[in-house]
Amino acid sequence: MMHWRFGPMPEGFHHIPEPTDDTGAELAAQLDEVGPERIAALVLEPVKGRNGQPLPDAYLRAARAYCTEHDILLILDEAFTGFGRMGEMFAAGISGISPDIMCLAKGITAGYSALGAVLATDRIYQAFDSATTVFAHASTTDGHPVACAAALATIRAFAAEDLVPRGRVLGRLLGDRLEDLLKGTPVLGGIRVVGAYVGIDLLDREGHPISMRDRRHLEAACRRQGLLVHYTPDTVMLMPPLTMTTEEAEFAAETFASVVTALGPGFGS
Ligand SMILES: Cc1ncc(COP(=O)(O)O)c(C=O)c1O
User: What mean pLDDT is predicted for residues 222-231?
Assistant: First the structure.
């Protein structure tokens, strides 16, 4: 979706197609074709933010096994999936794998401040911690105290308020409620719940995914009613704060359903 819009792309990256089965078997063949001795790292997004589609567990386990066997670093981009969004603290935990490097952002401060972080194993960290080496890249706001204070407060809240299970409850609540409110409406293509992520696929009068213009109208109409939603070309998403109350979740589901019911007949016109 993105690459054709931007360029020039840095060299040295090889893109592998999305898996077509659940077994992870094709991954080894794809990496063998590149040549494991030429691969420094494998970068994966465990659940695609664009549509909430998780990589199969077997695929992630196959990725971990291949990387371990060939001394390749496994990097998971958990900017979107990290901090409870997928029903576990990190999506890696769903498949029981552990990456060598993990990229984090978004939920690390519950959105209160802009912060990104890169976690690495001790083995990797050692490479930047000798008498002669240094982590050479830097940015103006590295380790910004306000952002770090927001992250520490967020991490404390995760522990004190048991927010990860709460996220799972919220996701199911929103998904079930939306299913009740929208089932039978021709506009509903499907609802996907992964942890505290709810993806709603909407269809126009001809049964095609709704256009980007319809998505923009839907987002604006929800916002006018006090509900923030996000959309991609594939889906419309509800990603509730993990502290959302049951009453707020009820409001979110009812508001979303009423906006879809009002606008739906006009989708595609
Ligand atoms: C999966 C994923 N990775 C990376 C990013 C970019 O993160 P940042 O803006 O913190 O660099 C995003 C932002 O939307 C994302 O969803």
Answer: 98
Confidence of residue 23 (pLDDT cuts 50, 70, 90): confident
Q: Are strands 236-238 and 197-202 parallel, antiparallel or unpaired?
A: antiparallel
The Å distance, Cα 105 to ligand 1 centre, comes to 7
Mutation to probe ligand 1, out of 77, 78, 108, 239 (largest number of atoms < 8 A from CB): 77
In whole angstroms, what is the distance from residue 218 CA to residue 199 CA?
14
Q: Which phi and psi (to 5°) does residue 117 adopt?
A: -145, 150
Q: Is the pTM of this model over 0.85?
A: yes
Distance, CA of 102 to CA of 107 (rounded, Å):
14
User: Of 105, 100, 140, 108, which Cα lies nearest the Cα of 124?
Assistant: 100
| Side-chain-facing half-sphere of 124: CA atoms under 13 Å | 16
Domain 163-266 superfamily per CATH: Aspartate Aminotransferase, domain 1 (3.90.1150.10)
Residue bearing the CA closest to ligand 1, atom 12:
79
Measured from CB, residues less than 6 Å from any atom of ligand 1 are 45, 49, 77, 79-80, 105, 116
80 alpha carbon to ligand 1 midpoint, in Å? Answer: 6
Residues of the chain with CATH 3.90.1150.10: 163-266
Check residue 49 and give its pLDDT: 84
